[in-house]
């Protein structure tokens, strides 16, 4: 049980990477950005989430990610219903390298699919994550075709398994940006709840909202 609780705590950093008109597979991260975190080896996370807002049709999505080997994460997402940009499933992969205690670098590829017209271009990126006391900072860069962008974020635990997360990412090839504020909370050793609001800088664009539920499945039994 202790091992499962630790695994669920590690999974608390899992988040949705979503930019306008994209349905990216969800690497471990904050709200709208990836971090250098990966799903722990031998841990599967099943996810269901909904996106909605004043100027967008509600979308329902499902996905999974898994730590198939140490420092490696693989994942897949798909649109279930309601999205204006429903396409084929999207894949993601990430490799983490420890720089020093409390700091790591990750290289990843997200939003890989066979339907770029609906899902957008692949999203290669590099990101560094490091902690200072209870606060962690994240700085990264993407090299997506038509949207080479910087992104930053912060996260910190509050209490009772609850953490606050905020991030900022450039979109439209750096001409605009998307800022978000959200939380993740541990409901039980296996269940996690996430939610956030994103504010785009594009003229006339409305805020969007995401709610997500994570279910943690250990693939290895305790010995």
Trace the largest sheet across and list its strands. Answer: 1-2-3-4-5-6-7-8-9-10-11-12
- Mean pLDDT reading: 85
User: Which word captures the global form?
Assistant: globular
Q: Which percent range describes the beta-strand content? A: over 45%
The run of helices and strands is: HEEEEEHEEEEEEE
Based on the coordinates given, report the CATH architecture.
Answer: Beta Barrel
**What percentage of residues falls in helices of 4 or more residues?**
under 10%
Q: Quick one: CATH class?
A: Mainly Beta
**Biggest sheet character:** 12 strands, antiparallel, barrel
The low-confidence parts are 1-24
The gyration radius over C-alpha positions equals 16 Å
**Count of distinct structural domains:** 1
CATH topology category name: Porin
Q: Give the CATH superfamily.
A: monomeric porin ompg
**For the terminal residues, how far apart are their CA atoms?**
11 Å
Total count of helical runs of at least 4 residues: 2
Structural class, by secondary structure, is: mainly beta
């Amino acid at each position: 049980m202790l091992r499962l609780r630790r695994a669920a705590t590690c999974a608390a950093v899992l988040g949705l990477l979503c930019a306008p008109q994209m349905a990216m597979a969800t690497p471990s991260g904050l709200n709208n950005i990836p971090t250098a975190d990966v799903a722990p080896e031998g841990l599967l996370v099943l996810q269901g989430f909904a996106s909605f807002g004043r100027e967008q049709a509600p979308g329902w999505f499902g996905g999974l990610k898994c730590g198939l080997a140490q420092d490696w994460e693989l994942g897949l997402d798909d649109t279930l219903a309601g999205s204006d940009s429903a396409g084929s499933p999207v894949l993601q992969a990430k490799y983490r390298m420890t720089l020093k205690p409390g700091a790591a670098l990750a290289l990843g590829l997200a939003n890989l699919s066979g339907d770029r017209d609906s899902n957008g271009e692949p999203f290669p990126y590099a990101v560094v994550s490091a902690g200072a006391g209870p606060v962690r900072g994240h700085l990264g860069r993407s090299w997506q075709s038509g949207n080479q962008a910087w992104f930053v974020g912060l996260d910190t635990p509050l209490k009772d398994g609850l953490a606050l997360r905020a991030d900022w990412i450039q979109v439209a090839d750096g001409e605009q940006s998307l800022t978000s504020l959200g939380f993740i909370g541990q409901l039980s050793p296996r269940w996690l709840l996430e939610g956030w609001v994103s504010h785009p800088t594009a003229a006339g664009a409305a805020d969007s909202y995401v709610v997500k539920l994570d279910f943690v499945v250990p693939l290895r039994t305790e010995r």
